[in-house]
């Protein structure tokens, strides 16, 4: 039955049915606040997060969390479909006697993202995701974070990392996991840090427990740098002057992109690479006051996205020589139509 405007109540037996009784084969991940299983029902797929029971008397907090999530509606935030909050009775042996114990089963049912987490798709080299896809992920993630920071009161995610950026079938990024914190406000900093990746945690939160929106800005900077320069980018940026590092990243991407793009489109994509690298480094400033606000970041990305030099990014203009390169001199024919022969692209650009 519908209990909120956008959220359904779902009973525990149904969740067991769609997850094969929360089997290991259905388990697809584990976050700070629970274990995630893949559920399937009537050709629909869901992500079922079975929440940890950290306290006994947190029913009020759970419903307050639902009220907050009911307000969160953004294409770059994982959508909550439904929830379970059910008291079940189990019999167990205790000191030689059979006793009946109450067990609270809590779970969140979320939209399922076909392409999994960003972590699965990132690579250290430049032969994985193509640049337009990487930029789309950066832009969408920042848009989602701007939405959270723009709430009243602002919402601090506190756990932004590639594992918590999920990608749907269209490669649209969606922030996840952080919203579960609404149900566990009493979780200690040590508990959160034990289940997160320290590299993405801001120094003021890690060492002093200081929480602000700038914690998320630091994390998004680390993620952006990894998207642009690979997992070794952070260590490399510490080994050389700032501008030398930016030039290195831009040069690496230019060498790759020039195989496909030319002219104004190539220059515009390279400018995106440079701007994203600069933003990432600014976000990673140790002094939190020097980090930009998320609104400042999205303004820069919007300007870069609509650069006058762009041709339609969905239509690639290529010379005959470039076509020869990416088809290995038209070596693999995959079909014929009324107007010509179709060949398979052989260049590793993250797509074919």
Topology:
Elements: E1 8-9, H1 12-18, E2 27-30, E3 34-41, E4 44-51, H2 59-71, E5 80-94, E6 97-111, H3 131-149, E7 165-167, E8 173-175, H4 189-194, H5 203-208, H6 213-229, H7 233-237, H8 242-257, H9 263-283, H10 294-305, H11 320-326, E9 333-336, E10 341-343
Helix pairs in contact: 3-6, 3-9, 3-10, 6-9, 8-9, 9-10
Pfam families: Pkinase (PF00069)
GO molecular function: ATP binding; protein kinase activity
Organism: Triticum aestivum (Wheat)
> How do the strands of the widest beta sheet line up side by side?
1-5-6-4-3-2
N-to-C CA distance: 44 Å
Mean pLDDT across every amino acid position:
84
CATH topology of the largest domain, by name, is Transferase(Phosphotransferase), domain 1
Estimate nothing, just give the exact number of structural domains: 2
What fraction strand? 15-25%
Main structural class: alpha+beta
Report the principal-axis shape. globular
Q: Helical segment tally?
A: 11
Write down how many β-strands occur, each being a DSSP E stretch of 2 or more residues.
10
Instruction: Tell me the Rg in angstroms.
Output: 23 Å
Q: Any guess at the CATH architecture of the largest domain? A: Orthogonal Bundle
Q: What top-tier CATH class of the largest domain fits best?
A: Mainly Alpha
